[in-house]
Amino acid sequence: MTILLAYALSDIGKVRETNEDSFVCQPPLFVVADGMGGHVAGEVASRVAADTVSARFAGAGGEEPTALLSEAIIDANDKVYRLAQEDSERAGMGTTLTAAFVAGSVLYWGHVGDSRLYLLRGGVLSQVSEDHSLVGELVRNGSITADEALIHPHRNILTRAVGTGDRVKVDTGSLTLAAGDKVLLCTDGLTNMVTDGEIAAALSRDGDGAALLAQLVARANDAGGLDNITAILVCFEAV
Fold first, then answer.
1. Mean pLDDT for each consecutive 10-residue tract of the chain (239 residues)?
2. Angle between helices 41-58 and 65-86 (to 10 degrees)
């Protein structure tokens, strides 16, 4: 028998004046969103997107999870885009959005942007989602290395986001979880400051999930804390 444990933490970081990240940690649904836009528009975009996905699942009636995730993120895109069109101060606002839903031993996911979904299994960390960013494209086509991407001057340029256009393409997928697996959803405020190796080492330690997340966020802040940092840790444990 297995049990699902989940922990979430969001931190403003050391540079930003506001936290434009939003999250939902309501097992079996998990969402992280990293907003962008002037004034408080990024905060609005991420909150609207996260709340839209949460509301869609709250009212779901047995729909297939992959399709539901895709539909929910498209709904979020429509709402954020419409709000941006209605208010000039919110023009161009948008957000990343990475969501996961657990049904039995299967984790279903939907993703837009450069927040990330990771799987830690047997001490090995794998990035499940694909970064929809300029440097992500450059890494995939072999133009730069993953290490070079961390310091690339255009690393914050997204190639796909929720709310910046009237349509959005959503990546979806699923994976079967096993006892001992850990799943991490996080914004780039963590991954721009902490390497995958450091994340794997931190999450491989024994200890309370909340403490492990706190250590990761502290490491990101120690490295500069240049952005808001949000992370959700989902642990699939044997009992």
1. 89 96 97 87 96 93 91 98 91 95 96 98 96 78 72 76 96 96 97 95 93 96 97 89
2. 140
Choose among 201, 197, 199: nearest CA to 231: 199
Question: If we measure between CA atoms, which residue out of 180, 167, 219 comes closest to residue 2?
Answer: 180
Verdict on whether the full-model pTM lies above 0.85:
yes
Cα–Cα distance measured from residue 46 to residue 59, given in angstroms and rounded to the nearest whole number: 20
Question: How distant is the alpha carbon of residue 157 from its chain centre?
Answer: 16
Cis check: omega of the bond before 65, within 30 degrees of 0: no
83-106 residue pLDDT tens: 999 988 888 899 999 999 999 999
Taking alpha carbons only, the member of 215, 239, 110 closest to residue 231 is 215
Looking only at the bridges linking them, the beta strands covering 97-103 and 2-11 are unpaired
Nearest to 146 by CA among 197, 109, 110: 197
